[in-house]
Amino acid sequence: MDEVLALDAVGQAQAVREGKVSVRELVAAAIAKIEANDGEINAVVHRRFERALAEKPADGPFHGVPILLKDLGWVQEGEPYNAGSRTLDGVRIAADSYSVARLRAAGFVVLGRTNTPEFGTTITTEPAAFGPTRNPYDLEYSAGGSSGGSAAAVASGMVAIATASDGGGSIRIPASMCGLVGLKPTKGRSSYGPAGGEGWNGFSCAGFVSRTVRDTAAALDLISGYRPGDPYDAPALPRPLAEEVGADPGRLRIGYVAVHPRPDVPEERELSAAVADAAVLLERLGHQVEAGCPGALGDPAFPEHFGAVVANNLAAEVESVGRWRGKPVELEELEPRNQAMAKAGRGQTAVDQILAIQWMDGFRRRMAEWWTSGYDLLLAPTLGIGPFPLGYITPDDLSTAFGRTGPAVAYTSPFNATGQPSISLPLHRTAAGLPVGVQLVAAFGREDLLIRIAAQVEAAAPFQHGAMR
Q1: Residue 466's pLDDT band (boundaries 50, 70, 90)?
Q2: What is residue 176's predicted lDDT score, i.e. its pLDDT?
Q3: What are phi and psi of 161, to 5 degrees?
Q4: What is the DSSP string of 42-84?
Q5: Digit-coded pLDDT (tens) for 313-325
Q6: Where are the beta strands (DSSP E) in 330-463?
Q7: Whose CA, among 186, 353, 371, 458, lies 20 to 30 Å from 432?
Q8: How far is the C-alpha of 439 from the C-alpha of 452, rounded, in Å?
Q9: 170 included as an active-site residue
Q10: What global pTM score does this model have?
Q11: Looking at 33, 70, 184, 187, which residue is catalytic?
Q12: What are the CA-CA distances from residue 287 to residues 249, 273, 278, 452, 453 (Å)?
């Protein structure tokens, strides 16, 4: 069964269709893998093993393939929901989200829910409620966040694919830390319904972490599409993303940046080396690669405005949790980081929030000018810092914690603000063997181009997944 578990989700589905393995055998093997590995990794915080074994999955394209859901969004009928916080202890969900319903209709079998930082507000998965998720490549290191539980589960071979979400880098950062493919889609590509309209004023998008480009493409196809009542929609794709895998991307003009133009982001040699190697690979594949990036990327005012929008949304979320459970959430119930952020959000006015959003409107237009000037893609590091150990982003001193987080998300959060799609690919390892991702960013609505180029890169330099146990 280890050979089947080592397949990607598309491969596992094919093995089931061809009768090489039964649904029950595949699900039981994934459960056994979780039970064997998760004691030290701590990726799965809610398990539904007996229910998963008893289910008859839908006869869809992923009939019988095990999957894990991030315990932030991605709600499932009858299951618990914590979002990394004890403030939601005892909550049970009344109905599937649209995206979870689509995954189940495609035949996926949900095994449980994965660890996430409290309300997803940081880039390491170390919640007080459930404890830290450890990186399968080195158990003293973080798996990233906020989709760290999902990434660690996939990297360690528990499942081939898991759901994720990204409000400031939370798909791409754990993908980088755990050596996976992580695509943040275009704003509005999938619905947040029926319970919600958008996350963090549109900064947040739903997606996946996986071991292969074709898994990411096929899974995103399943959840894509406008639902009546959604606040907006992403531009229609010319065809399913799964059909872009292997398609010729043509000769592209790619700008690259290895040293961030913002002065608060120091140069990291490991990241520069990762970008340089990726640039050489892309040139070898026939693309025009040259130094260059949007000038607005270096705007020193961006972190302040981005942080204000996130803090305001956290304050609103905490208020919603209080109404949901029938008892207001006191700040003391939250982790110190979220106490500070929620307090800051409560101190803002509606006018402050609107002004921050309007600043982001201008930033988005300034960034978009670069893609309309003749560039197809931007190549950059995924993280603004190298792989980091547990505790590095969560020291007791909050000023240190926030000071370390800002540079770390310098390459990811701007594209949450612009709504552009971007993908982290596992193309580099440190001398210690830890994964480092590089990021490719396309124009608004161009996931098709990202899948084409990512598949071309994957074919030329096959991804190595050494953490699978």
Answers
A1: confident
A2: 98
A3: -150, 150
A4: --EEEE-HHHHHH----SSTTTT-EEEEESSS---TT-B--TT
A5: 999 999 999 999 9
A6: 377-381, 422-429, 435-442
A7: 458
A8: 14
A9: yes
A10: 0.98
A11: 70
A12: 10, 19, 11, 13, 10
Q: What is the mean pLDDT of residues 229-233?
A: 97
Q: Are 438 and 381 in contact (CB under 8 A)?
A: yes
Instruction: Judge: domain 2-460, CATH 3.40.50.2000.
Output: no
* Ranges of each domain in the chain: 2-460
pLDDT in tens, 386-418: 999 999 999 999 999 999 999 999 999 999 999
pLDDT digits (tens, 9 = 90+) for 65-92: 999 999 999 999 999 999 999 999 999 9
pLDDT in tens, 121-135: 999 999 999 999 999
- φ, ψ for residue 35, nearest 5 deg: -65, -30
The β-bridge relationship of strands 205-210 and 134-135 is unpaired
Q: Report the side by side order of strands in the sheet with 109-114.
A: 44-47, 109-114, 66-70, 161-166, 205-210, 181-184, 422-429, 435-442, 377-381, 253-256, 288-291
Q: Return the HEC string of 283-345.
A: HHCCCEEEECCCHHHHCCCHHHHHHHHHHHHHHHHHHHHHHHHCCCCCHHHCCHHHHHHHHHH
Q: Please check whether residue 162 is in contact with residue 114, taking contact to mean a CB–CB distance below 8 angstroms.
A: yes
Mean pLDDT value of segment 120-149: 98
- Which one of 97, 147, 150, 170 is the catalytic residue? 170
Of 85, 142, 146, 190, the active-site residue reads: 146
- Per-residue model confidence (pLDDT) at position 158: 98
176 included as an active-site residue:
no
Cα-Cα-Cα-Cα dihedral of 387, 466, 217, 244, to 10°?
Answer: 110
Could you report the per-residue pLDDT of 268-324, keeping only the tens digit for each?
Answer: 999 999 999 999 999 999 999 999 999 999 999 999 999 999 999 999 999 999 999
Percent of the chain's residues with pLDDT above 70: 100
Ramachandran category for residue 439: left, alpha or beta (phi over 0 → left; psi -120 to 50 → alpha): beta
